Amino acid sequence: MSAALNDLSLAEARDMLGAREVSAQELTDAHLEAMQGAGALNAFVVETADRAHADAVRSDERLGKGEGGILEGIPVAIKDLFCTQGISSTAGSHILEGFLPPYESTVTANMWREGAVMLGKTNMDEFAMGSSNETSFYGPVRNPWRANGDDRDRVPGGSSGGSAAAVAASLCLGATGTDTGGSIRQPAAFTGIVGLKPTYGRCSRWGIVAFASSLDQAGPMTRTVRDAAIMLRAMAGHDPKDSTAVDVAIPDYEAALGRSVKGLRIGIPAEYRIDGTPGEIVELWDEGIAWLKEAGAEIVEVSLPHTKYALPAYYIVAPAEASSNLARYDGVRYGLRHDRDDLTDMYEATRAAGFGAEVKRRILIGTYVLSAGYYDAYYLQAQKVRTLIADDFRNAWNKVDALLTPTTPESAFGIGEKSDDPVAMYLNDIFTVPANMAGLPAISVPAGLSAHGLPLGLQVVGRAFDEETVLQVGHVLERAAAFDHRPAPWWRDQS
Length: 495
Description:
The protein has helices at about 1-5, 10-20, 25-35, 50-65, 105-115, 160-170, 185-190, 225-235, 280-295, 310-325, 345-355, 355-370, 375-395, 420-425, 435-440, 465-480, and strands spanning about 45, 75-80, 115-120, 175-180, 195, 220, 265-270, 300, 400-405, 440-450, 455-460. The protein is an alpha/beta fold.
């Protein structure tokens, strides 16, 4: 029986656990076995089998008493950006190698309280800076998908590439990700899974290693929209330790699924029809529009005129915040330390050895735009543009209930293909960044395959704290697309 248990959806596993058709220990063993045969993906940086077994025993006891939580007995993976008490948490960086947090992030604490079983920590772009999961100190993650007739390794997207690969390869039933400019949705699209970025403030950022504090948001990565709804309910919540976590009620997101979209107004932003976008991306978008129209939604053309400025503004704001946040990694309090006779020399030696090239690039950019001579010219102007982008969305909500766009401008590319061209890499976030700049919820749903047999996603963006409508529309798209493709498990032959 265990051979198929890791192919269940989270909702199916939950229902089987609740009916006592399977035990949490059996479910956990099936996923640990799958992980052992998937080393070639490099999706995990830490595996916590002993912890998983202990969690599963506890869950079986609670289920036996009828006291199970939302995620009771569900094996999950945690992006290495989340601090987990007593378990290595490195943000994919050499500078935090060996760091064992004495505390637990609020999001993971919420999940453990609801009964989730921890399988391990997933690989990621260093400090969440990247769109391909190639900047990790622990090496690149490999996408479980390969193009038709092409054995070349593909990127899983970033920065939550390890989580995306783990979910797509059925190594876990769900995983946490974080999304600063698209780092949940873009890897979800590249690996054929569902990725949900909640509204900024819906999930606490406390205990999550900071990249850009005004943009970072935790969210679920799963194989179905229903699974994302279940997982978000367990992750979300107000947190007095995080001043940006908003105290609003947490709905039963799963209850929103199955509702008709008849009468809903779905906006199609004209500015997302960008010259040079591959035809198959445009065709999938048009197909998504047709699916929603057939389901009874009203399709409305809208304008988000400042969209073209979102990406350049993001790559000023995010590095600026990163340069400030990463100043704490100096070799004094925790993590890597290169001793020198002079304190300044110690700072320089530690940071030079501890940070990778992409992180150094963004620190330099951020420090530059915050410097006395350039703050007004760059950072202040970018913040003004950010306000205009948010205003565009606010104006759109007067006409529509949600927006439909592509998730990415292409399918998964080869490892190393864009490594020498940062601008080409950054362009992968062109459709996802605006939602981060405005703090809005957005989901990527797998909707089709490219001509080469690689997954493509559609994105739904909604009003602030209206994840219910985002999930509702995403669920309709999911049913219409009927995306049931799975990657061929080539990695089992290489483990």
